[in-house]
Design goal:
The chain has a two-stranded antiparallel sheet. α4 packs across α7 (136-146) and α4 runs antiparallel to α9 (173-195). It has 253 residues and is mainly alpha-helical. β1 and β2 form a beta hairpin. It is built from twelve helices and two strands. The protein has one domain (17-29, 44-243): Urease accessory protein UreF (Orthogonal Bundle).
Length: 253
């Protein structure tokens, strides 16, 4: 057992990923999972329109900053800490983190991006992926998704929805954070392939180049506290605000 943020949680082997856990994680983070991720660009569409992102090197720089200094890092820490709360069955701590996750969204469109994907993710897991066994996290999942105190669909955030489902399925935090960040980056690369436009091969080169940043964040997040949350990707935040009034748009954010 260990204690983080005043929550006592069971220790698990983060290196161990069962075939069932790997199967669930690959399915949930797949572009085919019905969360509508392809409709969001996280403000990237404005950066393309404005000219900041125009090719593979500028896309790699933009996404690297978003991962290291923006939503990527904050979401990774929130996801890891929310898994602690879920594994401990601590409803209050989990709901506090959910509230914080939504409060950190810097614009109306980013709030929509986080909440709409979170609600869709929870609904899909609830209806198609029952927890494999009883545990505090699976009981919390049931309470917050189907019980009398269930969080409304628009009250979720994407990282917290993933945290609760992953805990209920006993998936190690480091693996979950890494998969979540990879899916986040890959979705934005896909948006850039359509919006820049960018070739598919260049898109894959960018995803490969972001691998070390994703691995570092996934390694750090399980040992980071809420005091480590803080972003300075200001241009990405401003891009999401400007996107709200952009005349021609392919994406919802």
């Amino acid at each position: 057992m260990t204690t983080r943020m005043g929550i006592t949680i069971p220790m698990t082997d983060d290196a161990a990923l069962s075939p069932d856990a790997l199967h669930a994680l690959l399915a949930w983070m797949s572009p085919a999972f019905p969360v509508g991720a392809y409709t969001y660009s996280h403000g990237l569409e404005w950066a393309v329109e404005e000219g900041t992102v125009k090719d593979a090197p500028s896309l790699e720089a933009w996404l690297g900053d978003v991962l290291r200094h923006g939503a990527g890092r904050s979401d990774a820490i929130l996801l890891a800490r929310a898994m602690d709360a879920a594994n401990a069955g601590d409803t209050r701590a989990f709901l506090d983190l959910l509230e914080l996750s939504l409060a950190l969204q810097p614009s109306a469109e980013r709030f929509l991006e986080a909440s709409a994907q979170g609600g869709a993710f929870i609904a899909a897991v609830r209806d198609a992926w029952p927890a494999p066994h009883e545990c505090p996290a699976s009981a919390l999942f049931q309470d917050l998704t189907s019980g009398p105190e269930a969080v409304p669909r628009n009250g979720w955030s994407y990282p917290l929805a993933v945290a609760l489902a992953a805990s209920a399925h006993d998936i190690p935090a480091a693996a979950v954070v890494g998969a979540y960040l990879h899916a986040f980056a890959a979705n934005l690369v896909s948006a850039a392939v359509r919006a820049v436009p960018l070739g598919q091969t260049d898109g894959q080169r960018v995803i490969r180049a972001l691998g070390p940043a994703i691995a570092a964040l996934a390694g750090d997040a399980p040992d980071s506290g809420l005091e480590d949350i803080g972003g300075c990707a200001f241009l990405a935040d401003i891009a999401s605000m400007n996107h709200e009034t952009q005349y021609t748009r392919l994406f919802r954010s």
